[in-house]
Amino acid sequence: MSELLTLARKELLDLRRDRIVWIVLGTLGIAVVLSVIVASLDYRAQLADYEAYVAQVTASGSGVTPAAPQLFPLQLLRGGMEYVEVLAALFALMIGYGSIAKERSRGTVDLLLTRARSGTSIVMGKLLGLAILWAAIMAAIVVIALVAVATVGGAAIGLHEIARMTLAGVAGWVYVLFWSSVAVAVTTLTRNSTGALLTLLVAWLVVVLVIPQIGDTMDPDNQIPGGLFKALAIAKADEHAVLAHFSTYESARNGLEVSSISKLYERFTFATLGIKEIYNGHSLAVVWDGTFRYVYGAFAFTAAALTFAAASGRRIHTLRRS
Amino acid sequence: MSTVATAARHELLASVRAKAPYALVAAFLGMVAASTFIGWRTTVTVTAIYQQVLADGLTTQPNPFTDVSPLYYVRNTVIYVLLIGSLMAATLGVQSALRDRRAETAALIGTRPVDQRAVRAGRLAGLGILLAGLVAITELITWISVSAVVGTPLTGSETLAVAGFGVLTWLLLVGFAGIGVLSGRLLRRERTALLAPVVVWAVIAFVVPQLGTAARPVSLLNPVPLPAQASGAFAWLSQALSPLAITEHFKTSSAALLGSPYAGSALVSALVVAVFACIALTAAILIRVDRTTGGTHE
């Protein structure tokens, strides 16, 4: 255990001096704040439109007014969470890749092997260091997000919001740990650093962007601007009844989406933060009932990636200078 | 042979020999091939849903998919060009710029009595030819797959539209290749050289459009245009940031060519994409800062 801790400490020292860590934190922090600003402006624009409409209705003498748009503070984080989903995964890959590639390019793998019991120890020590780093970054993102919602969004933050945002942060940590583990494993097993980097980039593209994009564009409601069912003036209950006739298609589409850990992370986070309307205002017990499959799925993906990384350590002797 | 032609020929040879970006190229070509099937399968399902809705007596609206152009099936290709194609082009650009540093021949080339701008222009020309070849393959795949799905060869005007989409795609890709070349020349490490164009791409594809439309970042990957946000600060922001929303302009002009719904001026959008390509290529040729030493070690 002390060997792992020593290696993790060495990795953290390396990373502390690496500018990429600050670039990651800065980019994610700015993206989250920017999204909260955009969502707040959007809400205010909706409110202004609503007030103008109510004024028109009142002037016309009609007593019927539609419900006012409501502000749910954590819903302001929707864009920010999507940026974490896309960009944090990329950064996790790059940092994971760098942790092995730097030893290869410096020729220090052999030196490390004289100190550590096995290649697996080296890999897991590095991953422990990365896990600590990502825990710190995710904690910072949680704080930035809550401060942005409170200050920019002008919303009150209570224990309820802190607890849910913390859960979203933990989900984010599991998610990025998956990507860093994959990066460490692929870089360890690939002789050519450039090849490893490009393989990881393809994996990121496919899992984070392409698979969710296919699922999204196959959604029947996403086929025309504003939504198909809205264009056909169909109520929500009728929409579900109609889609029940197409359960095989919907199952295939859903199966494709949940094969991506990014979508699992998104579904759990959106439910926890109440971004997904059907969970908004419900207790965490209700959220858990609806999303536990995604949590288990994400844990299974991350456990598999960690096992893959640990196994890759056995072949660390194949590393060569590139 | 002129410096430009020699550099272009060398770039072509070296890019084809470098196997590392093959995975990206394969992903790009594979997804373009799959996109027609995805578009067709979705349209068939949505039409069946409409028939069900009609049979249940839930609507009197006309079918929004009646008489769609055969090229409507290609709408997902636009997104794969944005997603995979632009990153593939940027990666090829980065690899092109890093090749000499990795082989430690960058300083050697600097000692030769040749115009460095001509060398850079030649290399970009080589990359441009390579990308043109890849785009031609994707358009051929598109032509064959759409013809197979609709059961008849595309007409002359439809073929021209596919060719026009190919030209537009090529302009976007060479623009990102230029950004990749610049990044590879300016940044020390391979990791950051590759990361920088991806971040630039993410800003262009997600952040800029989000600022102008309040749309969710990932929803911007849906080929269907979002309803315009015309109120509040967004109308102003949308105008101000419009020249930077390259990917949205690409989507608009492609949608116009492929007969999909779009908002705005297709011609202006196509011009913005062309200007983006010109600026990126000019910068990649004229900016003189080159790292000739230090390798690309992490």
TrEMBL record, chain A:
Mark the transmembrane ranges. 20-41, 83-101, 122-150, 170-189, 196-215, 294-313
Q: Which UniProt keywords apply?
A: Membrane, Transmembrane, Transmembrane helix
What is a single molecular function from GO for this protein? ABC-type transporter activity
What organism, scientifically named, is this protein from? Demequina capsici
Pfam families, A to Z: ABC2_membrane_2
Q: What is this protein called?
A: ABC transporter permease subunit
- CC per GO annotation: plasma membrane
The source's superkingdom equals: Bacteria
UniProtKB/TrEMBL annotation, chain B:
What is the recorded name of this protein? ABC transporter permease
PANTHER family in alphabetical order:
ABC TRANSPORTER PERMEASE
Which classification does the entry list for the species?
Bacteria, Bacillati, Actinomycetota, Actinomycetes, Micrococcales
One family from Pfam that matches here is ABC2_membrane_2
- Does Membrane count among this protein's keywords? yes
Q: Which domain of life is it from?
A: Bacteria
- Give the keywords, sorted: Membrane, Transmembrane, Transmembrane helix
Q: Name one GO cellular component term.
A: plasma membrane
Q: Where does the sequence pass through the membrane?
A: 20-40, 72-94, 124-148, 160-182, 194-212, 262-287
Q: Per UniProt, what is one GO molecular function of this protein? A: ABC-type transporter activity
